[in-house]
Amino acid sequence: MSRTYLNRRQFLTLSACSLGTVWLSACLRDSQTTSAATAQTARPAARGTVEVELAATEGTLTLDDRSIPIYTYNGQYPPPRLEARPGDTVRVNFTNRLAEPTNLHYHGLHVPPTGNADNVFLKVSPGETLTYEFTIPEDHPPGAFYYHPHHHGFVARQVFAGLGGFFVIRGALDDIREIQSATEVFAILKDFDPAPTRSRRRHMEQMLGREGQYVTVNGQLNPSLTFPKGGLLRLRLLNASSARFYRLALEDRPFYLVATDGGAISQPVELEELLLSPGERADVLIRGDKSTASFRLLNQPYDRGGMGMMGGGGMMGGRHGRMHHGGGFSTQPQTLATIAYDGSVDAQPLPSRLMAVPELPAPTRVRRFTLGHGMSPGRGMVFLIDGKAFDVDRIDTSVRVGDVEDWEISNVGVMDHPFHVHTNPFQVVSRNGQLEPVQAWKDVVLVRRGETVKIRVQFRDFSGKTVYHCHVLDHEDLGMMGMLQMQA
Questions:
Q1: How buried is 488 (Cβ within 10 angstroms: 0-12 exposed, 13-18 middle, 19+ buried)?
Q2: Whether the Cβ atoms of residue 194 and residue 68 lie closer than 8 Å to each other
Q3: Does residue 230 come out as left (phi exceeding 0), alpha (psi in the -120 to 50 range) or beta?
Q4: Is the residue at 405 inside a domain?
């Protein structure tokens, strides 16, 4: 299949340790929650082993002179950043200090979905400790992945309240000379609400997908990010919001996309805009080749749909929608961060090549899925896959390990749905019959209302049960999730 590349005038939707040992970037800080902490690095417990103590706790975040109650990992925001290399054993001693059950999902990692690995069916009750342990495969791609809770019925509530952070796999992408020379900045895009954990939310809020009043980067409102003039900024982006989309742009220059959810693409792609739906990640390079002293990272309005059958023009209003901003709504671009020069270096070039993205073999089977919604007695509106709400006791899709399949996912509802598959990454083949222009590894793909998206996935290495679902997490909790059985 031939592939073409986007230029900067086109719009792309991302639907986007040098000592031979591993490092845990634990972001070790003071015990109290802070919005301005600086990451530190801790050595692993032993060569080839990453071991970390991680606890889900209640905490606070100060935003706009207000103390906001949040959920945290280890009492800090941003949360600890976990890092490892292929071949390493990861051991997470996880303690639940919340007053409700929770667990951990290692979003995007290709590790077993069973036992005490990436098993979303485990339950960690209040006060309990569970040790997660798994080995990163030797051929695991480098990239920015994501850990967050996944105990069904509590997922949206806990992510909305602040739980979720980077899980980074280091590797060949980091060793490319131009990437090594860039200033690396991790940016968690996350909205917060003054009352994120209140137990009774209006059903309408959940149906729409909850969005918080304050939109932050690493828990800060409009932080300053710096890199030297003439250099490259490697901005590693994670949409850790439970429902909010980010339609990103820079004030006076393009992005250069170098990696998506599952790792590097083959060569940089110049973009004017970058859309990240919940759960998506992207690595972009920003050039310090202009004389402008500072410029802004902007979030532009985006209409992700609404309950049109209930009247009105959709949940967000207007053609591009509205965004929460400091207690009100805005139809204007919102400043997420200000980027400024700090010093200068000789002009640094972009890499010409990154990492090859192999094309998957032809599929052995094609399946079709329909995303929609309906009414349930006693529950109100629920979100459905193939007309069914989630049932943990029902297997919805059974596949064979080793097979390659095409999944055609059609959205017949009135809202956009980012579709996430656990355990195995996929490639987006086409959108409404048009070939996807960039070949990349993904684990979340945006399926807009009225769209049909075809993805190709190979079920490799691991048997067992896992799930696929909408990553607007209120929709997942309200039923838009299916059970996947992978059989050896």
A1: exposed
A2: yes
A3: left
A4: yes
pTM above 0.85, yes or no: yes
Is the residue at 469 inside a domain? yes
Residues whose CB is less than 8 angstroms from the CB of residue 130 and which lie 6 or more positions away in sequence, other chains included: 94, 103, 116, 122, 124
419 and 325 share one domain: no
- For residue 423, the enclosing domain spans 365-487
What length does the chain have? 488
- Nearest to residue 209, comparing CAs of 442, 381, 378, 466? 381
Contact present, 80 and 27 (Cβ < 8 Å)? yes
Give domain status of residue 3, yes or no: no
Instruction: Let me know whether 162 and 40 are in one domain.
Output: yes
Closest CA to 350 of 284, 290, 253: 284
Is position 352 within any domain? no
Q: Each residue of 244-294: pLDDT tens digit?
A: 999 999 999 999 999 999 999 999 999 999 999 999 999 999 999 999 999
Instruction: State the CATH number of the domain containing residue 149.
Output: 2.60.40.420
Phi-psi region at 361: left, alpha or beta (left = phi > 0; alpha = psi -120 to 50): beta
